[in-house]
Amino acid sequence: MRQFDRAFFRDVWRLSRPYWRSEERWSAWGLLLVIVGLTLGMVYLNVLFNTWYKEFYDALQQLNKTAFAHALFRFTWLAVLFIIAAVYQLYLNQMLQIRWRRWLTDHYLGEWLKDRTYYHMQVFSDGTDNPDQRISDDLSMFVRQTLTLSLGLLSSVVTLASFIGILWTISGSLSFHVQGRLVVIPGYMVWAALVYAVVGTWLTNRIGNPLVRLNFDQQRYEADFRFSLVRLRENSEGVALYGGEPRERDHFMGRFGHVFGNYWRIMIQQKRLTWFTSGYGQMAVIFPILVAAPRFFAKQIELGGLMQIASAFGQVQGALSYIVNSYADLANWHAVVDRLRTFERNMGDIRDLRERHGSIHVEQAEALKVTGLDLRLPDGTPLLSGLSLDVAAGETLLIMGASGSGKSTLIRAIAGLWPFGSGEVQLPPRTQSLFLPQRPYLPIGTLRDALLYPYGDPDTDPVRLQGVLEECGLGELSGLLAESRHWAQVLSLGEQQRIAFARVFLQCPRWLYMDEATSALDEAAEQALYRKLRTELPESAVISVGHRSTLLAYHQRRLMLSRDGAWRQGGAADSVASVVWPS
Fold first, then answer.
1. Bigger pLDDT: 372 or 314?
2. Which of 324, 439, 506, 507 has the greatest number of C-beta atoms within 10 Å?
3. Which domain holds residue 106?
4. What are phi and psi for residue 554, nearest 5 degrees?
5. Does the reported pTM lie above 0.90?
6. Interatomic CA distance for residues 182 and 194, integer angstroms
7. CATH code where residue 421 lies
8. What is the full DSSP assignment across 142-160?
9. How far is residue 125's CA from residue 129's CA, in Å, rounded to a whole number?
């Protein structure tokens, strides 16, 4: 784990820079300037409070009621101003945080979703765990901690600059004899504060440094544990049918064991750090009074001067002890920055991977045309060699072959999902196309939303939706259009595949690609849906992947793939067509 070095702060700037140069930059900089102004105003009020300490405590020592009343009046308006500044500094800080987070969330979602990076990271990359947590949690923590720690550092620097001169002036000089020689230390309270803070910072760093790595790991273990629970919720039926509850429990507790063990190590490290920082903070209360007491008892200063020295020392020591007081937050901030930079680098690696291996050229055209397409696995193993294929509008093609021959991979390549290979793919616009995977995606929401996903007309008549459900064998769901549920868990896979066909009949794509889209249906249901498909969408091209020979009746052409990379195509009724062997 890196320290707080130049590379770390370069990473912070890389993460921050896009927002501060974005279309929101003027409002963001304006808000930041107001927040900085309020922060500086609070430091100035603390300077005024410091002079108030002398006035107030001198009045007490001298039993001066008039001066005492004047000091109380002065305190009142200082306190009111400080409260107003503190409230609006916090309010505007939070406003800037949520605006920055909103922009970053949109920015990262765009990068993650662009060119299907989310899919490629899931399939081809093992470098980023839980991208959802990076976007939902880490962006929030990054924004909050970057602003809070940066403004805290600014406040500490300005406080130090404001109070160090005051402390130097009012602390006077410390004189003592060493081996008969007079030693005079001017502004000795400043030197005392400096030594106190430097020693405290060095010890805090030594004690607390392991927290950086531990906090990084804790977020990862927590996310892994949560993800495993979500996996059970999404696959509850399969686990229940297998009776896999004991295995799942063991798996969960194994994941939680990492959470528990790492948190225990954090507890031990935090205890060590708190032992020191608590003692350090308590000593800071009495230390300046002890150091200044000799001058007070020598009647060189009055009670007000003593309290002013203690207040100024506290401000200087607090500013110099910024790292000590913020170490736990700094360690957590470091871990957040590392996770976000890892996330960014992995998205960049995926883009590089597509550029290195993605020599499959995909472009828009009026019809589907595949020319010289070679497909490979990520390790270079060939799947398909030299495929050339034309499908005109209204034609139907069935892709068949043994498991592992590359049928689904071919559909992914046509869709632009598979980067490993070479060749050229021309296909119609996506708005005219619909891809049906074996397991359809059903968004969480109303059944109406699920039916119209992704390109359906939101103003579609409910009667039309109910009619399509009836035609697809889902009449029992026709009264649930407004119900909001997790439909992927409510419906069986067969019912989900019927929902996918309902989408087809509602959205009427000109080009339809189906990857074993009827695998969970019986042959009678499959035949009924294909007959309806050819009746209602006779001008739509259909490219299907399937195993059942009964599908041949609903397709004009057939493409057969072999595990050795060979392929052959011909009419659906042909038992043997021209064979093309890999070169």
1. 372
2. 324
3. 6-355
4. -110, 15
5. no
6. 23
7. 3.40.50.300
8. HHHHHHHHHHHHHHHHHHH
9. 10
